[in-house]
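INFO batch 0412 | record 1 of 1 | parsing
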Amino acid sequence: MTVGKQGNVAVTSNAPLVTVYKEIAVNAQVGDKTTNAIKNHHRYRVVAWWTSGQTGIAKSDSAPNAIHFSVSPKFLRGLEGRWTPEDLLLCAVASCYTTTFNAIAIHEQFEYTDLGVEAEAIVSKADPGYSFSEIVIRPTLTIPQDDGRERALDLLGKANALCLVSRALATPQTFEARVEVSRLYPAGPSANMDQPPQPSMQRSPLQYVWPCTMKDGTEVVLRPICPEDEPLMVKFHETLSDRSVYFRYFHSVSLRTRVAHERLARICFVDHDRELVLVADYEDPKTGHHRILGVGRLNKVPERNEGEAAVLVSDQCQSRGLGTELLRQLILVALDQKLTRVTVEMLRENLAMQTIVKRLGFRLRLLDDPTAIRAFRDL
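INFO prediction complete | emitting tokens
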């Protein structure tokens, strides 16, 4: 008897628990066909590049987005604010636990409101180097009513025993489970179960990160802009000539206006539900200092389900393929967000930009404005 679904995979109540989890883990949806040819063995592959002195890029065969990481600044000369291998290991533990518990909950027909998992580790000096001395997993499960506490703790323990990543680690682990009763769903006959829970935190922005090598061999990382980039954006605008500014904004804009805090704050604190801003981040391999060499923007037009793209590259990096790569990745973002068209407006005298859009499959259309032209590509 079918009792639930995980994605597009049906789960049956009479199947052994381990079998249910294995089926959920290995089944994949391919077009209109569900393939489960590989049930006993599945190969995972991740490739990591050490792009410069302090950072690297890791990418999985199963995901299009890369991860930008660094070594731990606590032990080595790493960069603050970056994922480290230690962070990624704990992320694997925590995320694997959530997927395992969800599979068990579906199989057991157990309803829950929310599950948060905290994974914490202690790294100690070893001989040689350092070693994980302890990993603590702290799941917090929120349930709709108080009478499900005992069963909830039992299922939390089963998830810990079956979690693939946890079982792969030889490090001694401490398991500390906690169950909370939902404050969003009041228990009892007067409870309004039609009212959905409110999110506990603001939705995180989409992460699109790609390594990129320019024609001259310079390596950069294309990534979403972040609030900490405001000082870098000021320096980026200082590298732009009047001609580059005119081609981007269709009129002259003073440096003072472009680097005003109010303006840059709106760009760096971007609303990712409405637009995405990618920056080309270059890290000096000798100093570890970062510079922004280019910026690409994709503004969503919801009423037409389209995206309006624009690209601006530092003068010293023009004609090296960076503008093409920025626009190419904006197209991939638009595809990922299921937009139906990307448009780019440019001055008719901007022949370099016209060459880029033609190379990427855009078609050109004249506008009523005799000075401008629009390129569009249907997705």
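INFO post-check: The longest helix spans residues 85-107.
INFO record closed
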